[in-house]
């Protein structure tokens, strides 16, 4: 009997799978990677040896307004380690710089003060200027031309008026942008809702290059790079983390060169060969990415890549924050099923994209091929069931449900952390 830990919230559940039914365990090697130094030392090394760029301390000289774009509460970016070192580097070159952290909330809800303290620690929250981006606040935006796709590019005014724009983040596989990090700090991080909607249109989400691990020819990535260039994103600090959310590698420097180097590193660690099975068990990597159903679609998409047609996906996701977006929820709650959701979304033009339709589109795509069971004891099951998923309160119950659909002897593949792998 194989016993496999599945991340769940701030803890984990254990999947017990008979050896003769276990088809495979798909894990990123990032979870077993031995870092060459401690977290702080890795970040310092990256800042001292930037890729394709002068050091940040040099870039900061003579600059008055410096804006640091930082990820929001939905991302496990270890800002407690990174932010103090970014500040130290900037102030080494410019002790009098006017520095503001701009939280890249993208299309998410605002980050709370408690979440900011958890992210940065109390000292930075108390001592530094922090502003929350609001994609719906037109007064805080400025038009910046067009995206390569034709959509309107509208960017946060504070970022556009900065003398130096910096971004921190982390790199992991992303289910439609290829990888997180780098240019994503700008789009969708700090752009207007109209820009997010244009970039996340149904045509792009359905594109065969809009998949985890793919940058070349990915239409979303092309738009994102253009937005970062237009915003004059001058320097990034991106890290790679393991299952314990600890830094194992850091990349700093040019917005494109440093990011590509980081993506190559992640790709080498995260790419795993599919092990097709009728049942696939996965997770959204635990807290903070498994706070809602919206984010859980990411983990589902990894399972989709190795689940046989008509098979069952079981995803462990606390979803303690509920569905994660009323618009996302209503796509399903107001529909007769996933086919109606998909049919409606595919008829929507780029310039008419509706909030959160991209997540609904991917969820519906998965549901049309597989039954999905969400395992949670922290979310009202009626919310999940109203979205045409099944719900279970624990893994044994979910396995029983899955076996009733595909049979008691069905093979099982386990992806302990669905957001950390590229299934090829």
From TrEMBL:
It comes from the Bacteria. It comes from Acetonema longum DSM 6540. Residues 8-212 form the LarA-like N-terminal domain. It holds the Pfam family LarA_C. One of its GO terms (molecular function) is lactate racemase activity. Transmembrane segments: none annotated. InterPro entries: LarA-like, LarA-like_C, LarA-like_N, LarA_C, Ni_dep_LarA. Coiled coil: none annotated. This is Uncharacterized protein. Residues 272-423 form the Lactate racemase C-terminal domain. NCBIfam families: Ni_dep_LarA. Signal peptide: none annotated.
């Amino acid at each position: 009997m194989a016993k496999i830990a599945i991340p769940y919230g701030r803890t984990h559940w254990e999947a017990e799978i008979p050896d003769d039914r276990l088809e495979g365990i798909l894990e990123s090697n990032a979870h077993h990677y031995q870092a060459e130094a401690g977290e702080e030392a890795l970040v310092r090394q990256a800042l001292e040896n930037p890729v394709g760029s002068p050091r940040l301390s040099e870039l900061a000289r003579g600059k008055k307004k410096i804006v640091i774009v930082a990820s929001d509460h939905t991302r496990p970016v270890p800002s407690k380690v990174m932010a103090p070192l970014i500040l130290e580097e900037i102030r080494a070159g410019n002790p009098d710089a006017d520095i503001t952290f701009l939280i890249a909330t993208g299309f998410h809800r605002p980050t709370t003060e408690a979440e900011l303290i958890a992210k940065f620690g109390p000292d930075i929250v108390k001592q530094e200027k922090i502003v929350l981006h609001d994609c719906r606040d037109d007064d805080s935006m400025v038009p910046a031309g067009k995206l390569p796709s034709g959509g309107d590019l509208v960017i946060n005014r504070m970022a556009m008026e900065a003398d130096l724009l910096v971004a921190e983040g982390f790199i992991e596989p992303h289910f439609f942008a290829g990888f997180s990090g780098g240019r994503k700090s700008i789009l969708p991080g700090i752009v207007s809702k109209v820009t997010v909607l244009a970039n996340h249109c149904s045509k792009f989400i359905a594109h065969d290059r809009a998949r985890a691990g793919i940058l070349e020819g990915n239409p979303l990535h092309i738009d994102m790079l253009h937005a970062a260039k237009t915003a004059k994103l001058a320097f990034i600090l991106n890290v790679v983390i393991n299952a314990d959310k600890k830094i194992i590698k850091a990349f700093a420097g040019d917005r494109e060169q440093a990011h590509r180097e980081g993506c190559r590193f992640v790709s080498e660690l995260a790419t795993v060969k599919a092990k097709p099975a009728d049942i696939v068990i996965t997770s959204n990597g635990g807290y903070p990415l498994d706070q809602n159903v919206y984010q859980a679609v990411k983990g589902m998409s990894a399972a989709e890549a190795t689940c046989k047609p008509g098979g069952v996906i079981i995803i462990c996701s606390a979803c303690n924050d509920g569905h994660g977006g009323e618009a996302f929820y209503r796509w399903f709650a107001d529909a007769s099923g996933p086919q109606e959701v998909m049919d409606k979304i595919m008829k929507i033009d780029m310039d008419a994209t509706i909030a959160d339709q991209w997540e609904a589109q991917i969820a519906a795509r998965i549901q049309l091929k597989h039954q999905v069971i969400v395992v949670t004891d922290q979310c009202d099951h009626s919310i999940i069931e109203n979205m045409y998923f099944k719900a279970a309160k624990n893994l044994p119950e979910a396995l029983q449900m899955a076996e009733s659909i595909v049979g008691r002897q069905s093979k099982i593949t386990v992806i302990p952390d669905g957001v950390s792998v590229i299934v090829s």
